[in-house]
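JOB MANIFEST
job_type = single_chain_structure
chain_count = 1
residues = 237
[input]
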Amino acid sequence: MFNNLIESKRKKDRSAGGTAMSVIVHAVLILLVVVVTANAGQKMVEEHHQEDLKFVKVKPKAPPPPEKPPPPPPKNAVVTPPPPKGFQVVTAPIKIPDKIPPIDLSKPVTNAADFSGIGQEGGRANGVAGGKAVNTNKTYFAFQVEKQTMAKPGNPKPRYPEMLESAHVQGQVLVEFVVDTLGHVDMSQFKVIKSTNELFTDAVKRVLPQWKFYPAETGGHKVKQLVQMPLTFTSSQ
């Protein structure tokens, strides 16, 4: 049994030409895959770059607003009259200051001819005939005097209201008042122009009568001046 052996079909050996052709085909396929993949990646990068590019139009900066011209003087402003031709009178101060007052270098130097004793009292050597002496009973504005009033050093500060200070509330009060020829604040002319809180206003009203000023001067005389002063309350905490 099974004495006869059947020979199976002999497989033919692959020729060298077929092997080379197979290698070439596979190489071509791999090259195509690489080229297609590279092109696809480049396309994705280009698309990604196109998405990231955004052009924003920058608006030019607007030019700064023109400066406002200074307001005209009030209609009821007192015009400083020209001094008469005459002389000045030296008067000793009622209270001798214990501190040297600030020196205003912009003020003209005293002219010795103004103290000649010739002409009308209260006038000046370069005055005009028929001129009028300075009216010390009138209230002048800051732009009308030769030397503006100035607060003396050492004036007490307004007391910060405890309720507002504990709550860290800050504010400002803009007040108007008249400084007389003795350097005192005339509270009868006191006016509140602007205030952020009534408690701040009350604190200012209580302290202003204690303040001392150097009175304003014009034409060699001390005169009353209208003052507008802002006072700021800033919490230190």
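[summary]
The first helix runs from residue 16 to 52.
The chain has a mean pLDDT of 75.
exit_status = 0
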